[in-house]
């Protein structure tokens, strides 16, 4: 497969290395400082799929540019989901292909699945409070992480005493606290904690490297071409 990489930072470079190991070709790189190419330089004749990991402020424009070029796009950038409905509408308008995940790691997507199951079971019993904690490297721009937001939304769907979230300690029992920590070069850790007066129950995912994110993005890029619409990891993994 010929892959256009949009963003050649920590994720773009990890994906490039793994893509080559899997027999793919890097058709081009679009990056603010590593390349002078633009998305307009790439057509479906040059690239089969684009993989976008850039910045919360640039992801939406990059996604729309790919859709207008007719390029299927796998987007991993977080912090831009206030534009997601517009991206969906454009995908349908142009008959394009968009894949989005706040986290491409297969392990994290299992974590999302178990998180929703645990929330629904814990909601049946009184006496537990629940909170989410995420730990990332100090270069991370958005807060809370996209993964923590997906986790929080999963809890809110199944744990009716929580009706909203706050990126700080909860100020009322209806608020789900999502606590963000920035430490050194931490790749990404997410923890859901249920506590009662008598015990604590935790679900934790800790990424040891970026390889899991890169592998998931490549699995999505291998799966997406030929499918029209908006997709996510539940479609790919059949979760
Ligand atoms: N969904 C998932 O599984 C994962 C998502 N992420 C998300 O992916 C994004 C990127 O993460 P990461 O690779 O660690 O970040 P980096 O900062 O290491 O890399 C981002 C790269 O994109 C470049 N860039 C910025 N704006 C543009 C633009 N408009 N067009 C092209 N290139 C641009 C940056 O250049 P410059 O430095 O000059 O700004 C940089 O080289 C973040 O939003 C992060 O949260 C990260 C890991 C996993
Ligand atoms: O910026 C990162 O590094 C990561 N971002 C994603 C997020 O915001 O959830 C995924 C992963 O945790 C790493």
From TrEMBL:
Pathway: Amino-acid biosynthesis; L-lysine biosynthesis via DAP pathway; (S)-tetrahydrodipicolinate from L-aspartate: step 4/4. Keywords: Amino-acid biosynthesis, Diaminopimelate biosynthesis, Lysine biosynthesis, NAD, NADP, Oxidoreductase. The keyword NADP applies. It comes from the Bacteria. GO terms for molecular function: 4-hydroxy-tetrahydrodipicolinate reductase. The keyword Iron-sulfur does not apply. Signal peptide: none annotated. It catalyses: (S)-2,3,4,5-tetrahydrodipicolinate + NAD(+) + H2O = (2S,4S)-4-hydroxy-2,3,4,5-tetrahydrodipicolinate + NADH + H(+); (S)-2,3,4,5-tetrahydrodipicolinate + NADP(+) + H2O = (2S,4S)-4-hydroxy-2,3,4,5-tetrahydrodipicolinate + NADPH + H(+). Its EC number is 1.17.1.8. Residues 107-237 form the Dihydrodipicolinate reductase C-terminal domain. Residues 1-103 form the Dihydrodipicolinate reductase N-terminal domain. SUPFAM superfamilies: Glyceraldehyde-3-phosphate dehydrogenase-like, C-terminal domain, NAD(P)-binding Rossmann-fold domains. Belongs to the DapB family. This is 4-hydroxy-tetrahydrodipicolinate reductase. The lineage of its organism: Bacteria, Pseudomonadati, Bacteroidota, Cytophagia, Cytophagales.
């Amino acid at each position: 497969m010929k892959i256009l990489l949009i963003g050649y930072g920590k994720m773009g470079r990890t994906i490039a290395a793994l893509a080559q190991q899997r027999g793919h070709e890097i058709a081009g790189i679009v990056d603010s400082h590593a390349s002078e190419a633009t998305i307009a330089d790439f057509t479906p004749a040059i690239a089969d799929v684009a993989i976008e990991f850039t910045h919360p402020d640039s992801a939406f424009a990059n996604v729309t540019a790919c859709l207008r070029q007719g390029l299927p796009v796998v987007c991993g950038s977080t912090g831009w989901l206030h534009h997601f409905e517009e991206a969906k509408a454009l995908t349908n308008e142009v008959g394009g292909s968009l894949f989005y995940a706040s986290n491409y790691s297969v392990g994290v997507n299992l974590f999302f699945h178990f998180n929703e199951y645990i929330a629904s079971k814990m909601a049946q019993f009184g006496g537990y409070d629940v909170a989410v904690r995420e730990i990332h490297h100090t270069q991370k721009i958005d807060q809370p992480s996209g993964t923590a937001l997906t986790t929080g939304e999963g809890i809110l769907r199944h744990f009716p005493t929580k009706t909203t979230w706050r990126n700080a300690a909860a100020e009322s029992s209806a608020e789900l606290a999502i606590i963000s920590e920035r430490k050194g070069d931490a790749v990404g850790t997410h923890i859901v904690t249920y506590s009662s007066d008598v015990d604590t129950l935790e679900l934790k995912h800790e990424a040891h490297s970026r390889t899991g994110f890169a592998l998931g993005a490549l699995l999505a890029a291998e799966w997406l071409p030929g499918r029209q619409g908006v997709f996510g990891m539940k479609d790919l993994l059949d979760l």
